[in-house]
Amino acid sequence: MKTLNQKIKHSIEVKKSNFLSFILPYIEFEEQMQALKTKHPKAVHFVFAYRKIEDGQIIERFSDDGEPKGSSGMPVLNVLRGYDMINVAAIVVRYFGGTLLGVGGLVRAYTQSVVDCIKSHPLALDEYLKKESFDMVCEYPAFSRLKYLAKQYEVEIIKEDFGAYEISLRLQATLELKEAFLQAYQND
């Protein structure tokens, strides 16, 4: 599977309609959608699709945003599926150019818009590394060392709960980095 390391954008024109494509990490989706609607108030459609992993399941969603059913959101989602992308959202902003494209023309235009966006930024794609969450308990004197090791082993501290005598932590890392981190933590 692939994911993105940066937001990418591209535009195409089809029969005087402009299609502005934005592909971004899923965590930026809501904020980016609002920003695009503010920045492009005269755009007619804001079509989107996304794929994300939540609790080990792939969640997919799309919207045609007023285009004929199945002509835009699903083709955008199919491109994300075809490139095996995960934790990624695609938004296509359409400025209507006065010529009706028909359902087939819309499918081709939305598909081409997203494909061109991905192909124009090949270095933005990264391999998706599955991360695993795990819990730990640490005493206060060991906390700074744990934070240091977490940074060294690319282990993300998601949650910290400070108790009276110890700190409960939720951490996240790839399986191999988790094992290396735990081994380094336990060896001292």
Describe this structure in words.
The protein has 188 residues and is an alpha+beta fold. It is 33% helix and 38% strand. The protein has helices at 29-39, 73-82, 102-119, 143-152, 175-187, and strands at residues 2-4, 8-14, 17-25, 45-54, 57-63, 88-95, 125-127, 131-139, 156-162, 166-174. A hairpin with a 2-residue loop joins strand 2 (8-14) and strand 3 (17-25). The longest helix has 18 residues, at 102-119. It is elongated, with a radius of gyration of 21 Å. The mean pLDDT is 89.
Tell me briefly what this model is:
Helix content is 33%, strand content 38%.
Strand order of the largest sheet: 2-3-6-4-5
The rough form would be described as elongated
The number of helical elements comes to: 5
The SSE order reads EEEHEEHEHEEHEEH
C-alpha Rg (nearest Å): 21 Å
Task: Give the terminus-to-terminus CA distance.
Answer: 36 Å
What portion of residues belong to β-strands? 35-45%
Number of strands: 10
- Helix/strand structural class: alpha+beta
Helical amount: 25-40%
Poorly predicted sequence stretches spanning 5 or more consecutive residues: none
* Average pLDDT over all residues: 89
Largest sheet: 5 strands, antiparallel
